[in-house]
Amino acid sequence: MSRPPKEVHLAAHFPGVNNTTVWSDPAAGSHIEFESFARFARTAERAKFDFLFLAEGLRLREQGGQIYDLDVMGRPDTFAVLAALSAVTERLGLAGTINSTFNEPFEVARQFATLDHLSGGRAAWNVVTSWDAFTGENFRRGGFLAEADRYTRAERFLRAAWTLFDSWRGDEILADKASGRFLTTPSPGAFAVHDDHFDIAGHFTVPRGPQGRPVIFQAGDSDSGREFAAATADAIFSRHGTLEAGQAFYADVKARLARHGRTPDSLKVLPAATFVLGDTDADAREQAAVVRRQQVSGQTAIRLLEQVWNRDLSAYDPDGSLPDIDPLVGESHIAQGRASVRMNRDPLAVAKQWRELASAKKLSIRDLMIEVSARQTFVGSPATVARVINDLVQADASDGFILVPHITPGGLDAFAETVVPLLQERGVFRTEYTGTTLRHHLGLGAAP
């Protein structure tokens, strides 16, 4: 007996200025003024998306001792933006990345509980860890933790926050309101957390929100990250957007749930995805090539190459050949605060691979950077993109996608106007919101 079609989940990521956005395009607007966030959120809500997602940077990235070009717009505070968006939207979920390495449970739980109240139950927390001392310099508790310790602290942090969220019991407070008596036993908001990371006790200041607890997202791809998600998260972000890689990741994280007493539908797998639409598939491919060259200018190509070579390469021609010299391997690095530095753990091997690729395809530095940093997941006509998205979801390569447009704030418009109706015609995407909370949008059960 075949199963009914799975519902497709869609979300939108406001990317700010990074290597995905084409900030130089005349259609690009501000990446920090509130109206950009508001327009983007309204489009996502009009299309009945599950949620809007904001990443967060806790320090401006640097390269060669200077602020990295694409960070000069700044990185506004996540909570402030999401709280403001709660006033201009009604149903759209509001998800924010908040770090568990440098923050403290009380302040983060208080902010998310407040956001959940302000939004009527639409708050979500992407729990992340931090891996570098460079970012830690912005905080009193500087430095960084080993990977295993980061995830241990993250789990202790999250469980401490849950203790705070759960410290107010709704039924007891309602009973007290009905009787007209003050509730003294148990004391509302009383909490105590004593473990190897936190030693806190007191009274939480915010009553339990509409969702009880915010929806929890997790983005780690390592074994530790996947296990953390299986134990604690409601959704996990993924960079595996193709069929085979997506199915392998999906099967792996879903299989981990049983040992934590959870069912497969209690964790949603949501890869990030970019898109380029055209009137035809051929038209979309042509536009995609233009977008890639806009995303990777000559200057950007040199910057990206420097992150592997760990050298000042500003004298090199981006339309010329790769440097003859090898990457500089050492503790210090020309780029600070960039995940790509950590991902390229063996720069000599990467350089060898890139040289072979450049030689085989006769690629310049810029052409090579376009080739190796491609981020275009869906390219085609609206009909093609709708079909591929649905095929991947039905094949258990994902439960949906978090869309990252290359133009903000208007880059989501075409997808909302052309692809979403086709998914709705297939009966795999909602035509109206049927609930008010993000937990409902995602098909999750009530929080414990």
UniProtKB/TrEMBL annotation:
Source taxon at top rank: Bacteria
Pfam families assigned to the protein according to its UniProt record, in alphabetical order: Bac_luciferase (PF00296)
CDD domains according to UniProt: Nitrilotriacetate_monoxgenase
One MF term in the entry's GO annotations: monooxygenase activity
Domain Luciferase-like per the UniProt entry, residue ranges: 25-395
Listed InterPro entries: Diverse_substr_monoxygenases, Luciferase-like_dom, Luciferase-like_sf, NTA_MOA
Keywords, in A-Z order: Flavoprotein, FMN, Monooxygenase, Oxidoreductase
Binding site for FMN: T97, Y151, S222
SUPFAM superfamilies: Bacterial luciferase-like
Family the entry assigns: Belongs to the NtaA/SnaA/DszA monooxygenase family.
NCBIfam families: FMN_nitrolo
Name of the protein: F420-dependent methylene-tetrahydromethanopterin reductase
Natural source organism: Actinophytocola xinjiangensis
